[in-house]
Amino acid sequence: MNFDFSENELSIAAKVKALLGPDSKDFLARGESGDLQQTRESLLQWMNRLAQAGYFALGLQDGKNSVPLVATRESLAAVAPSLFLSVEVSTRVFGRLIAVYGTPDQKAALLPAVQDGRLIGAVGLSESGMNLESSLETVAVPAGQDFLVSGTKGHVVNAPIADWIAVAGKTNDRLAFFLLKADHEGLSIDERLPTLGYDGIPISPLSLQNCPVSSGSCLGPFEDDEPLRKVRSWEDEILTAASLGLMRTALDAASQYARTHKSGGKPIMAYQEIGFKLAEMLTLLQTAQLLAYRAAWMAETGDREAELLGRCAKVFCAESAERVTSASMQILGQQGYLRGHPAEEGFRNAKYLQIAGTSTEISRVKIGDGVLERG
Amino acid sequence: MFKDQVIRFAQKEIASRSSDHDLRGEFDFQSFRKLGEFGILGLHFPEALGGSGADVVTTVLAGEALGEAGVDGGLTLAYGAHTFLCADTIFSHGTDLQRERFIPKLASGEWIGCMGLTEPGAGSDVASITTRAERRGDRYVLNGNKMFITNGPIADVAVIYAKTEKDLKHAGMSAFVVEKGTPGFSAGKNLIKMGVRSSHTSELIFEDCEIPAENLIGQEGAGFFMAMQTVEWDRSALLAPSVGGMTYILKKCVDYAKQRVQFGRPIGEFQAIKHKLADIKIFIEAARSLCYRIAWCKDQGRPLNHLEAAVAKLFVGDWSLAPANDAVVLFGGYGYCHEYEVERYFRDSRLAPIGGGTSEIQKRIISKLLQWT
Question: What is the ipTM of this complex?
Answer without folding.
Answer: 0.93
